[in-house]
Amino acid sequence: MTIYKIRYIAAILFIISPFVAFAQQQAGDSISIFELIDAIEKNTSCRIYTTIAEPFKVKKAETLKPTAESLRQALTATRYKVTVYGNRIFVLPEAFLSTTLTPILKGEQMKEEEQASSFIPVVKSSSENKVYEIGNRYKPSSEEMVVLTGKVTDFKSGQNLEGINIVHREPWVATATDRQGNFTIKLPVGYNTIEINGLNIKETRRQFMVYGEGATHIELEEENHLLDEVLIVSGRVQNVRSTQLGMEKFQPSLLKNIPTAMGEVDLLKMLQTLPGIKTVGEASSGYNVRGSAADQNLLLLNNGTIYNPNHLFGFFTAFNSDMIKDAELYKSSIPSQYGGRIASVLNITSKEASKEKFTGSAGIGLVTSKLNLEIPIIKEKTSLLLSGRTTYSDWIMKMLPEKSGYRDGKAGFYDLGGVFSHTLNERNKLNIYGYYSHDRFAFNDNQKYAYNNMNFSANWRSIFSEKLTANFSFGYDHYDYRNDESVEEAAAARLSFAINQWFGKVDFSYKLDNNHTLNFGLMSQFYNINSGTYEPLHESSLVKWDQLQKDKALESAIYIGDQWEITPKLSVNAGIRYSMFNLLGPRTYYTYQDGMLPSSTTVVDSVSVGGGKVVKTYQGPEFRLSARYAFNDDFSVKAGFNTMRQYIHKVSNTTIMSPTDTWKLSDTNIKPQNGWQLAAGAYYNTPGQVLELSVEGYYKKLNDYLDYRSSARLIMNHHLETDVINTEGYAYGVEFQVKKPSGKLNGWASYTYSRTFLRQNDPRIARPVNGGDWYPTEYDKPHDFKLVGNYKFTRRYSVSFNMDYSTGRPTTIPAGQYYDQGLQSMQVYYTDRNSYRVPDYFRLDLAFNIEPSHHLTLLTHSSISFGVYNLTGRKNVYSIYYVSENGSVQGYKMSIFGAPIPFITYNIKF
């Protein structure tokens, strides 16, 4: 049909439309389409041309003077498209009217770049009402489907947005943005509309006229409603479509309503509400992933390693939630760019400040206060984020019973963070991160403890082409502690430890073609560990100065991985990482008799190696493989296998993270840990994606995990190999989870059944633990059920709850006493290791949340949360200890929170 025929038909319809509109006019919110057209023509200078022949109802315009935009909104849910050209409006079914003639029709010569261009421009698409052209209109693709690549960023801050769903309805094609905000989707040639949705952003759409392959940059606006939020991020599309399994993603700002001890939003406490994640006690931020020890988890903050993530005895995590953008936890199928631990990787990224306007937030609670400032320096280019948190928790110690001996104690912490972000251009961006935390506590004036975390890192992201991107990172990590004890003046001493680590990383991503995306890179990090110093606290102390030799080493790795979409249903992610560990001098070590355990009686020789020379090298490949088969858009199955190596060990006499932990590098006598894991799962999203259902099972094997001999000396031991022993272990389990990510009631429920066992299988051991049989670990808790939810009564009022039940953890108990002739004293005889369990654990938390205002024009928005931690007041057993009383051994149970703990927190955004 020619344009002239369309105009002719439209003119006739225009003449009769007032009479049709008058006949169909009704009261209420809906009116006839012809009535709306008539109103627009009366109130504007526009003329409307359309092929609509039969009247239908549309929503009445909100304004008394409707415009072309009113018509476009009214027809959004219909098949009609609105094209505006000057003061003329065309309404046509299924298509927009082209308002531009090609150069050939205008008698002009085509430019060279229009005839054949090798460079694909990035089309910036910021409006949902405009149609953007993708590809070369003068040379449209002959293929039915073409590839659109793109990047999604926040309109105000310019931050890359991860986990944003990109959906094309007919034909159904869906994808989601990666960590850098990038996505790839196949679209049919011609007119397309894609729907865009995600957490904390306004749902929107983009319209494209696709001629061929191209790229687009989509800017999105943040959702203004403060309480209308989802609790946990997994990406509903990604849940089924990605090859990744055993992965969870968080945005701490969306977890603020879940009740925790002292009312503080705590990332690691949120982590412990997920299946497969367990902890041995309430006052611990250490966590165990699928049967592995706490030190087998790699915790990264902006690419830097955090060695102690605790504040205040483990009541708080070392990270201020207001400075965190997101966090990703990998329980299995760990990507090939990560290594160094054999259990899991938790990758935390700080957010960037807004580059548009000054904003901030603050919070005050019973124990802590915090402040977060976002400062634009150069609009749309440079910004600075500053974050701080402190505590006034000494009053907690004052509430302890007098007989505890700790009533005069003091405790506190503070942490500081900063992010400097500068965008040079659309292809280059620099981020500089800084973090520092300090903890101090004292049980009394004679026992004082302090420890510090410090991280600095810089990241340069560069887009070389539409296919190749790169991230260059380097940084410095530091952790130290010092413990002062002065009970007796002559024995007053300080014990200290420090670890310093420098690192550099280069990561590349290359889109080989529509089916292959390669990720490759290399990394290297240098360790310099002060293994321990014991020194007199003052001049009158008689303590002898002592220092362990330093541990120095270089750990390096190179990796490559391929994301291969074999068919639309079948995808595979395969990779290999080759790691190498070089222990460096100066160093002196012992050699021991063959076939004998290291001990003071089996020493053969002492060997010294000079500075800068390689003492010992460990190396080997690490394999990563995962696959996904999607039966449809809502159901898929996945499987994965990975091997890992770990060259550093935590040395501690506790199963939790504590401020007296030290770290020991592998050396000539202590081997690296290694292990592998096999996992499989099924994932289903119910119609309408109301619920996300998943089940995952796993089996893992652990080798050369360090255990300790009887009466082992772990502090200031110059030859630790004489008090440790290698063990092997295995773990298995199945995890069920149901998520309801939106609606008035949202949250998740999970159940995990898992077991973890160790054994001492070294033939050199004369008397292995439990006679060489398998024994459960201290964190083996077979049954684990968790329920987390939030119910919104209104947009301002909601209630949150958190329920946690698990089997009691294993423990070893004394069976009796006997008289030792050699020691000339009574000794305790113990049962087999970990053959008994403490009582089961149960806790219920409840919180009520109030959002005082949702007026978007106000300068500030505030919220209040108050509730009770451990609502039932259950005295959950943290540990059992034994004392000898009147010739018998008496056991006592110790609880951390044996009563309900009320809390209240006030937060404000400005």
Describe, in plain words, how this protein is organized in 3D.
- This protein is mostly beta strands.
- It contains seven helices and 57 strands.
- The strands form 13 sheets. The chain has a 22-stranded antiparallel barrel. A five-stranded mixed beta sheet has the order 7-13-12-9-10.
- Helix 1 crosses helix 2.
- The two termini are 56 Å apart.
- The relative contact order is 0.09.
- The N terminus is likely disordered.
What's the topology here?
Elements: H1 3-24, E1 30-32, H2 33-43, E2 47-50, E3 57-59, H3 68-74, E4 80-85, E5 88-93, H4 112-115, E6 122-125, E7 131-134, E8 145-154, E9 165-168, E10 173-176, E11 182-188, E12 190-197, E13 204-210, E14 214-220, H5 236-241, E15 247-250, H6 267-271, E16 277-278, E17 288-289, E18 297-301, E19 304-305, E20 310-311, E21 316-317, E22 324-330, E23 344-350, E24 359-365, E25 368-378, E26 382-391, H7 394-398, E27 410-425, E28 428-444, E29 447-463, E30 468-485, E31 493-511, E32 516-536, E33 546-547, E34 551-565, E35 570-584, E36 587-592, E37 603-609, E38 614-632, E39 635-646, E40 648-651, E41 662-665, E42 673-685, E43 692-708, E44 724-740, E45 745-759, E46 775-776, E47 783-792, E48 797-806, E49 810-811, E50 814-820, E51 825-830, E52 836-837, E53 841-850, E54 861-869, E55 879-885, E56 888-894, E57 901-909
Parallel strand pairs: 2-5, 6-14, 7-13, 8-14, 18-23
Antiparallel strand pairs: 1-3, 4-5, 8-11, 9-10, 9-12, 12-13, 15-22, 16-17, 18-19, 20-21, 22-23, 24-25, 24-57, 25-26, 26-27, 27-28, 28-29, 29-30, 30-31, 31-32, 32-33, 32-34, 34-35, 35-38, 36-37, 38-39, 39-42, 40-41, 42-43, 43-44, 44-45, 45-46, 45-47, 47-48, 48-53, 49-52, 50-51, 53-54, 54-57, 55-56
